[in-house]
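Retro notes
What went well: the complex prediction finally ran end to end.
Inputs used:
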Amino acid sequence: MEKSIETIWNEGFLKNDALIAPKINNLYTQKSKHVIDKFKRMFKINLIAIVVFAFVILIVTSYNGLTIIGFTWFIILMGLAAVNKRLTSSMEQIAYHQNSYDYLVSFNQWLQKQMAINRKMACLYYPFFFLSMVIGFWFVDAEGVALGERLVGEILYGFPNTILVFGVPVIIIAMVLTIAAALALLGGKIYNLDVKLIYGNTFKKIEELIADLEELKK
Amino acid sequence: MFILPYSGIIIKLCRAYTNSQEDFEDYYQEVCLQIWRSKQNFREESAWSTWVYRISLNVCLTLLKKEKKNRNTLFVSDTPFVEANEVNNAFSDESLNLLYAAIKNLSEIDRAIIMLYLDEKAYKEIAEIIGTNPNNIGVRVKRIKTKLKTLLDGKIN
């Protein structure tokens, strides 16, 4: 009796040789190159975005009388871009030579180094971002008078006994300094969150690949 | 590994779209790579096996299209019947080799449909993978089976 298509299919695949997966050469090479190339692309796009944002914020704030904020942010962001541009040069030197594992490990080492540098910088630039905003808004024009002076006037009207240091209520100085200190302390953590949001998936893939290759090495 | 339990599906599909061991290995590798790449896009709206099938099929069809472009060949339906021994005897089971040779004479989508059917997928899932109406699948499977029977007529005992 003639066999049905279903029978041929099922019986055929019962034999052991029917479903032998081919040996995959270069899969890990391709994977590691893909994941690192993707990171490099994202890193470069991010750098360009920082520079563009620096110019945009400078122009926008200048039109709104918040030049102090715009200028400070511009300097900080350009500095950040310059440092990371230098780091990019060392990143480009990491090339695929012998095997995926070495490639991934050296890339991961570079990644950790650049993250450590950026984390330290974050502890500085977050407080500066904040301080520049406070100072910027303090001096912004509010109907002929600086907004800060107006605020001090209102406080003194309500609380005549307020202690002033260089014409600024102590309570405001204390609050601003506390927030700036908190940002300095938490800068690294904020940076980690920021990086995780953008590159989280890529980092995970790199870690998984390294773990896979270490497992295969055993 | 997340691909390993489904390597059977991938092997069966890649075999149906390739004519040599070398091509088969290339397709298999590319499918595995693409599944790995697209893992993060999997939203669990379907079964993982459905997702694997869909990606495998997309990769095979894309590679086939690229190959066709390179070779500037005619459509599959215009090509003469591919004999099992002309292709390559990938399996030790002669009947399976003949069936594969017959499947390779079907259109690209029909190949996918019959393999999903033979892999005991429900019509609904086949439709989901192919991106068509489930009502059409039953009729199409019947037509494909008739065509395969004609192609295999007298060749298998």
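What we learned: The mean pLDDT of chain A is 88.
What to try next: split runs per interface for comparison.
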